[in-house]
Amino acid sequence: MPGEMVPERRELRASHEERDQAVERLTVAAGEGRLTPDELDERLEAALTARTHGELAALLADLPDAGPVWAAGVAAAAPEDVSRIAVDGASTKRDGSWVVPRRLEVESRSGSVVLDFTQAVTAAPTLEIEVAVRSGSVTLLVPPDVVADDVAVRDGSVRHQARPEPVAPVRMRIRMTGEVHGGSIAIRPPGPPRRGFWQWLLRRPRQVAALSRPPGPRETSG
Q1: For the ranges 9-18, 39-48, 160-169, which has the lowest average pLDDT?
Q2: What is the pLDDT at residue 171?
Q3: How many CB atoms lie under 10 A from the CB of residue 189?
Q4: What is the mean pLDDT of residues 139-153?
Q5: Separation in Å, CA 18 to CA 89, 159, 217
Q6: Which of 39, 79, 90, 218 has the fewest CB atoms within 10 Å, i.e. the most exposed one?
Q7: Across-strand partners of 132?
Q8: Cα(171)–Cα(35) distance, rounded to whole angstroms?
Q9: CB 119 within 8 A of CB 18
């Protein structure tokens, strides 16, 4: 049925940033008069504790322009066959829920390119990357379920700091070819997840250890 989320996508685990995106969309919807204050409170609590894309998508299903790719959840969101990134003395980054093409051509001249696959939407099991780096850098941030195990570039420097063996079922494999002159390529795990504003706002205060420990000998009343 049109509009239903692909089963495999529905079961994917949600990240901190994706929960923040849902919270932002809900807040905007309330400001537009689409949700009552009680409905907003209920959905915000559910969004902050959601575990999967399906749970988040259900909270946005009756709102127009859901926004994030995972929230649309429509199978028609097919990836491009070929996409090209070219920078000259600048920097660019692809992160969040961007749709990964089947083939990616990256050219960097005295610039930097960062490809973050942590929340990327992947439809094909393999991504072909062709790089041409001239005094620039290309960085791949790969979570445990994305494996870059086939890197064959000429010249330059390649630093591979990702896990040699995946700790989860492989979502996608990356094959990289091309050439690097006076530049570098880095492949590493992403950094720790960022705590969003709503998670910071609603966090529970820490309990003071001194208040929870039993009284010592001098603190016991006679």
Answers
A1: 160-169
A2: 85
A3: 14
A4: 89
A5: 31, 29, 50
A6: 218
A7: 107, 179
A8: 36
A9: yes
CA dist list (Å): 34 to 4, 46, 63, 72: 22, 17, 8, 18
Q: Angle CA(32)–CA(37)–CA(41) in degrees, nearest 5?
A: 115
pLDDT at 214 > cutoff 70: no
Q: Rounded to whole angstroms, how far apart are CA atoms 92 and 113?
A: 5
- pLDDT tens string 85-99: 999 888 999 988 788
Residue ranges of domains in the chain: 7-75, 82-188
DSSP H or E stretch at residue 11: none
* Residue 131 and residue 156 in contact, taking contact as beta carbons nearer than 8 Å: no
Residue 71 confidence (pLDDT):
62
Strand order in the sheet with 146-154: 82-88, 103-109, 126-134, 172-181, 146-154
Chain position carrying tokens 């445990």: 144
